[in-house]
Amino acid sequence: MTETLAAKKCTPCRGGIPPLTHKETERFQSQTPNWELRDDGHRIERTFRFRNFQEALGFVRDVGDLAETEGHHPDISFGWGYATISLRTKKIKGLHENDFIMASKIDRMFDRSDGPPDRQ
Fold first, then answer.
1. For residue 85, what are the domain limits?
2. DSSP string, 5-19
3. Is pLDDT above 70 for 101?
């Protein structure tokens, strides 16, 4: 059985390796379909919707805690009713499996939250 991305742990990336190929990116993206490729496939991004600022803030805090645990830190912007998460591996200036591991874990966290049914 193939291990799901959410069950994996991010591994330290020290650079010196190439970013994922287009084919590898497509394979990982099929496991995180709510995330969009941006910047010619150099990063992935998703916007999450909430009922208010407090829910968005709580989610951002949870993502921050996850980022510290995994040692892989996204770019986050948020405001009233939304949080946008952007992932890329800065040391290789592109995508790495770690980005998709984090995306999968963030999706799982969001799916367990008590947000409104019309979330994205």
1. 37-120
2. GGGS------S-SPP
3. yes
